Task: structure prediction
Amino acid sequence: MARQTFRYSTAFKMKVISEIESGKYTIAEARHIYDINSAGTIPYWLKRYGKDHLLNKVVRIQMKDERDKIKDLKNQIKALERALSKSQVDNICWQSLVEVIDEKYGIDSKKNFGSKLPPELQEVLKKLS
Result:
């Protein structure tokens, strides 16, 4: 026995979908009333033609200037991150310089901060600043 294939018009599909979405019938009731044998037919129609699938999606509405402002803020964050990285590298360099000077001149700059530095060191620091 050959298997029968049923073709339903778009208008019929839309009628069934609207009745289910309005709450008039459940999927099972609509299948029974309209004599639709396949259990997957109506859910497929609902997925393809119905409105319910839109409810789970997030719709984001932005004005053009909001989008530009977000882009500008992201660019500003990147610039600040670069500046922070540079300042961290500079800080490490200065700390290393202080350690080298402490070793070379045999002083502890942390304890002797503000004490008179040797003239050679004062010249080096003038050149660096």
